[in-house]
Design goal:
The protein is an alpha+beta fold and 467 residues long. Helix content is 30%, strand content 25%.
Amino acid sequence: MLGPRWGWQALRRCVSLPRAQRQVRLRVREALGAREPAGEVKVQGWVRSVRSQKEVLFLHINDGSSLENLQVVADPSLENRDLTFGSAVEVQGKLVKSPHRMQNMELKAETIRVVGPCDTWSFPLKTKERHPLEYVRQFPHLRCRNNTLGSLLRIRSEATAAIHSFFQDNGYMHIHTPIITSNDCEGAGELFQIETSNEAREPAEKTHFFSVPAFLTVSGQLHLEVMAGAFTHVFTFGPTFRAENSQSRRHLAEFYMVEAELSFTESLEDIMQVMEDLFKTVTSTVFSKCPRDVELFHKYIAPAQKDRLEKTLKNKFVIISYNEAVETLKQASQTFTFKPEWGCDLQTEHEKYLVKHCGEVPVFVINYPYDLKPFYMRDNEDGPQHTVAAVDLLVPGIGELCGGSLREERLPFLKSRLQRYLDLRKFGSVPHGGFGMGFERYLQYILGVENIKDVIPFPRFSHSCLL
């Protein structure tokens, strides 16, 4: 016997009930890019400006989807005292062709509802003011509504997607490496140690939560090496942490790192080619996807950066050895704060000079002294100088952007370095290498932003952890 549910379903199939026309919700970007007028649309966002005239009311609203605002044209009777700069609104009406040459569409409002009013007197961002980046940094909860930070965050989002696409298009597997780790990959000792709130109050002899000391990761490299032993080409992209007591324009305590590992490679050239291809592909994608946002930085923040980047994208990156770099620095007419000597690490002033000397294009410096680099870098076995197969990518205005190396896969060479690393070399070890790129430094370079704190949504650095 058929139940009542079957009868209701049959009725629904036989009877066509009229449906009310649904209102279309549009993002500002969609409304601005529409090709044809549309009736019954709804747009939500924040008011960027209000201008009331005798016969018409003009609003500009933005919802973060676009640098450009959508103009709303309304009858003055729709104005109310809460309709101010910064207030959140919902506008319903018709999308029509705009008579103005600078915009394609505008919204002819039928209703305007203030969802959230804004006290303009106490609101720290002011209409028609171009606030310095240092000023808006004081307001981590509001600075995303600033045009510059809005553009930065859209660019950051597109660059993130482009990085994932680059690796996936080239056959890499994405690995989620852990944030909590028991190792110090870089060996520099600049670690944040993890403990529970109870552990912080208890005597030191109490047992750790993980039974061993645990830290926030400084790099996902060692975990990627594990995965490269099964999947040949792997990458990760996530937060890393360094407890550097620095407030410089180049350092953060929390930042994002792009890292990759390649198995079955015995050549630094292979690693450098991936670095160069990654940089050029991601940068070209960002420029094509966010032209207006990038233009804002190249027009108001760093006017000369556009030409520099076009030169970078057109030219092959330069390759020099560490030996050549030191000799170039010694012969320089410039006086350095840190005297260049073989066996000493390159300082930021040295890196910037080398880039300038090589024609203001990115420079790979290869084959560093053995004692300067971590234990896992491959020994070049090159006699008295004793170098390792390491590479740093230096870029104009920033210095080091990427660091990489061939990894030491030979068990005898590692026995004197680190016991826990040996098992990876006992069972099916292969020649391999990899690199890491600081994402915030990458954004600094392509946009010409001086301070690294202005290319991340919530900067964390020594003596500062706002919000």
